[in-house]
Design goal:
single chain, 78 residues, mainly alpha, 72% helix, 0% strand, CLB_0814_fam, TIGR04540 family protein
């Protein structure tokens, strides 16, 4: 897994794969959270704009994955 992604499509695909691994019980929630926080810090301008995930990324992810990622990002801010 790379840390920095040049375009939203690659970032969205990486996030989708991570959340799918979690949903398939390949990785645990804490490991998912750790990886998403690393990606969020490295790609801060691409992943979250004013608290919202950009439409290009959210279209790749789908609603259920976006909800999981938003939950993790909100925990990160607290």
């Amino acid at each position: 897994m790379r840390k920095i992604y040049k375009n939203p499509k690659e970032l969205g695909t990486c996030l989708k794969d991570l959340v799918d691994f979690y949903l398939d019980d390949v990785i645990e929630y804490n490991k998912l959270k750790e990886k998403i926080i690393i990606l969020a810090n490295a790609n801060e301008d691409k992943l979250s704009k004013e608290g919202f995930i950009p439409i290009k990324i959210s279209n790749i992810l789908g609603e259920s994955r976006v909800a999981i990622i938003k939950k993790i990002l909100s925990e990160k801010q607290n």
